[in-house]
């Protein structure tokens, strides 16, 4: 028996008990673990040496694919040259270069970047900025935040408060006060089998006027929505919905925040969903595709109007008492800069727009497959909704996930929905493999 440095028996390096895994059925996993040990381009390598086609870009994040040389080399070089630099009252060139690069690629309204380390931190940052913005303008009574049912905005207290996924909220108590929720846009009876944006439901945005009538416009600081709700199972905005939401918020002086953690950096074939829909919010929260998932990093995009509201008072005073130890980390900035280069050099956003119709047709070819009750898609996002087993929700989709992994593809499930968001480097042969394997899996399921 080996001993650790204290003389106690050492835990074996591959013992699974110490790691409390996030969003995981820990007991089930540790009974039959699924270990990934390497990755390259479109594939993972499992511990037993199999190639696993990545149908989810990791967790919606590896947009440029895996272990891309330009990104790997940038991370290595930064680690050897400047491992860490404080962001409080200090700076390093890569953070400013990255912020400028992001401003250049963003819609014209956005010209300031606040760096975080994740989507959850980006959301909490944007909510705090919204509250502080109104206070800076002399409207400190605007404290109410409005999210949406079925929304996912990370796992910080702000994010789960404005979020609308009940399992993410139910065991954590009261959360933030002064939060309300708009209805979700999932209308299966009207929009089932839609290809792209559904036709029906733009009127749902008008519920915001009811919230305003209830609480008073002058009490509401911000509305936050995902342009496309990903973690709830790919719920799409009906045509005209986001335009209505923008018009109502602007009319009443309410900030509109787009949570673009999933849709940002090419997922819809444009840099951001704001570009795709032609709807400009006041802030955008991002992460994931910013570094193609290689190093944790997030960024909040703001307009000059929001930023400049804080640039008052003595110049030597801190304008916003907020930030993180790793805001603008040198290694993360290096990864993000290299990732943006890969996107640009390989034309991955345009490539996504070009392959999206093939993706759409492939997904919808599963209509009529055993257990399938709806299919939804936009850009390189897709959802296959399954009829749940009576009395055992989520079990059928989870069984499909396990069988798919055995057959060499990685998918993701949320409830009884199979969700997919492959790397933007995906080829038609990969689409065929994903969809064909899913069909085989579903036809074999009880």
From TrEMBL:
GO molecular-function term, one example from the UniProt record: beta-alanine:pyruvate transaminase activity
UniProt keyword annotations, A-Z: Aminotransferase, Pyridoxal phosphate, Transferase
Co-factor requirement: pyridoxal 5'-phosphate
GO biological process, any: biotin biosynthetic process
Enzyme kind, highest EC tier: transferase
Key word Nucleotide-binding present: no
Enzyme Commission number(s): 2.6.1.18
Source taxon at top rank: Bacteria
Taxonomic source organism: Pararhodobacter marinus
Protein's recorded name: Aspartate aminotransferase family protein
Family, per entry: Belongs to the class-III pyridoxal-phosphate-dependent aminotransferase family.
